[in-house]
Amino acid sequence: MKAQERKQVAFMTYVFGGAGAYQGRDLAAAHRRLILEKGLEEEHFDLVAGHLLTTLSELQVPTPLIEEAMGIVATTKPVIFGRV
Q1: pLDDT in the model for residue 22
Q2: Record's InterPro entries (predicted)?
């Protein structure tokens, strides 16, 4: 789980414009095995995005920032699932 946590932090830092360049694989390549072998589907993406939304809301992040964050996250979905 720690490895996944590190990947998630690196990814979030990258997509939200944080310092440092992302050194991981592109999103499609990084998720390909999970899609093909483990059955990762868009529904799973939506569940994770929902957890992020809930967390941001519980932390009382201002609504405009939540909307911006969720918009950024949404742009990664078609990349991950090969719809771009």
Answers
A1: 66
A2: Globin-like_sf, Globin/Proto, Hemoglobin_trunc
